[in-house]
Structures are given as structure tokens and as C-alpha cells.
Amino acid sequence: MAVTQEQLPHQQRLSAAARLRAALAEKSKTIICPGIYDGITARLALNEGFEYLYMTGAGTAATRLGLPDLGMTTMNDMVANAGSIASLDRSVPLIADADTGYGGPLMVARTVQAYMTAGVAAMHLEDQVVTKRCGHLANKELVDEDVYLSRIRAAVMAREELATAWPGMDIVIIARTDSLQSLGYDVAVSRLKKAISLGADVAFLEGMTSMEQCRSVCTDLAPAPVLLNMVAGGVTPDLSADEAASLGFRIIIFPAVCLGPVVNVVGQALKTFKTTRRNDVSEFQKQTGVKGFFNVCRLNEYLEFDRQAGGNAFNGGV
Ligand SMILES: C[C@](O)(C(=O)O)[C@H](CC(=O)O)C(=O)O
Asked: What keywords appear on the UniProt entry (predicted)?
């Protein structure tokens, strides 16, 4: 019987980045990532058994800061969010948005090493200007190709530097280009090929608008693995993970899978509360009390940890 990672002594287990690399090496495997943006959405996804997570930058801007995806999150905002999400389950690889890298090559290098130290398994870096916008909005502005490639080179160098100092450290670098919108398919594919030749591991053609592009891109970038960004309501034809896998995509992110529901469901709850001015207590809440909610965040595991460590704060139960 095959030994699972969990059965191995911790020294022999793979890091999250190594798990992601192993999955990428297995050609038949599709890496499906629900977009999450905070502790509770990450917990809900982990509780559903998702094997990979994607930390959306748009979601991070909206949920941590209440801001639109217009390049207002700083490196520190993103690292803090990614680090707390990655810490919830170290065996589940977290792919995180790193926008433009937040500055020149030196800042890109700081970003890469901060993501690595935070335990992020993969990050994507793009070629928009620092005053960027969501890849599915109009009139995106790009940096020149040499600036973009210096971002990728800096990322690869920074990864190498930290991996040398701290063996076992790694991060999968995903090169994203937003150039399709203004420069066209051939230029965008050529930018990605150059990024891959510099040491990026995965290619991400942002904002594809036709099935023809979706059908060609994996072949045109082979053998590099390609990521597909399935933004709900975005410009790319709507594909399921299975349809995308059949076109050859290896990583498929669904950034808005928890964003639409928060607007709809929480928005509706607030509307109802404004009218009724009382709690809408569900059957589940009546039965479990507040513990039901805390159990989403593994209340009992934390109580048990405290007990095993000799803590006595919760001996009488909670
Ligand atoms: C992938 C993305 O960078 C994100 O922040 O999740 C966004 C998605 C979005 O705005 O919904 C993007 O630029 O595509």
C-alpha cells in the first residue's frame, strides 16, 4: 500500500511547494484552485477537501481593505494575508497573486522571499504597470518587455538565493502577461516563452477572449504548464475545470468563487437584518449554538492541542 504524506515522519514530508511541483510533473493531474481571501474562506475550502488554494489579489483588496482591484494593496498586505492562509494547513499548496511584484527588481526579490518565508507554494507576477487593474478590465497599461523580464529574472534570482541559504525553500513562479489585450496573441505568447526561458515554471495568459485562444495556448506554450484564470463574469469564455483540463490547462484558478456569494448572501442577510432588527437564527445555529461556527475553524482541535500542551484554561469545557 502506498504511504501517504501524512504517514511519513515530518522530516520526510514534502513542502507545499514541492507538492505542487510533484503535481505539475504528473501530466495527468489538474490543479483546481478555489479562490479564497481570508481565514474563514480558506477554512471552508479546506473543510471541503480542496487540495490546492488560490489567494486572490482582488479578493484580498476587497475583503481586507474594502478596495477595488486597482493596485492599492501593498506587498505587506499581501504577504500578511497569504502567510495567515498558508499557515492553516501547511500540506495544502497555496498559489498567491503577487501582482507586479510591487516595484523594481529589488522589490520583486523582496516579495518573492517574503512569500517563500510565509510558506506560499506559488506566486504569479505580471507585466502591468504598478498602477495596475484587474486583468478583466479595459485599458490596461503595460511595462516594456525588458522591464517585465527583469521582474521574472529578479524572481528567479531571489528564489535561488533563499534556496541556497535555506535548503528546501522553494516557490513555483508563474509568469502572467496582460499584453493580449493591447499587443495581441503572438506578442503575449512570445512574452511568456521568454519568461519561461528565464526560469519561470508556469505560464498564465491573462484575459483570453475566445475559445480559439483557449484551445491554442497550451499547445503554443508546450512543454510549459499553463494556468487558466476563470473569473466569473470576466472576459474569458466560461469553462468548467474539466473542460479546461481537456484543453490542456494544468492549473485552473477560480478567483471569484467566494466573492460572488459574499456579496449575495451577506448582502441579503444585512438587508433582512435592517428590516427585522433581529438575528436570523438558523436551525443549525439553534442546535449547535456558537460552537457550530467555531468548529468551522476547528475549535475542538485547538482545545485538544491546549490540553496536550498542559494548558488548563479550557479544562472545564467551553
Ligand atoms: C486573478 C486576479 O488577479 C485576482 O486578483 O484574483 C484577478 C481576478 C479578478 O479581478 O477577479 C485578475 O486580474 O484576473
From this structure: Kinase, Pyruvate, Transferase
- Spot the catalytic one: 21, 81, 99, 159: 99
Q: How many domains does the chain have?
A: 2
304: annotated active-site residue: no
**CATH number, domain at 215?**
3.20.20.60
pLDDT value of position 209: 98
Q: For 168, left (φ over 0), alpha (ψ -120 to 50), or beta?
A: left
215/311 same-domain check: no
Cell of 68: 477595488
Is position 134 annotated as part of the catalytic site?
Answer: yes
Q: d(Cα 36, Cα 54) in Å, to the nearest integer? A: 6
Question: Which atom of ligand 1 is found nearest the CA of 124?
Answer: 3
C-alpha cell at 132: 495596475
Q: What is the mean pLDDT of each run of 10 residues along the chain (318 residues)?
A: 69 88 97 98 98 98 98 98 98 98 98 98 98 98 98 98 96 98 98 98 98 98 98 97 98 98 96 96 90 95 97 96
Q: Is residue 207 part of a domain?
A: yes
Q: How high is the ipTM of this complex?
A: 0.97
**Contact partners, residue 28, CB within 8 Å, separation at least 6:** none
Q: Is the separation of the CB atoms in 24 and 250 below 8 Å?
A: yes
Nearest alpha carbon, ligand 1 atom 3: 57
Told to judge if 126 belongs to the known catalytic residues of this protein, a careful annotator would answer: yes
Residue 99 Cβ < 6 Å to ligand 1? no
**Centre of ligand 1 from the C-alpha of residue 251, in Å:** 15
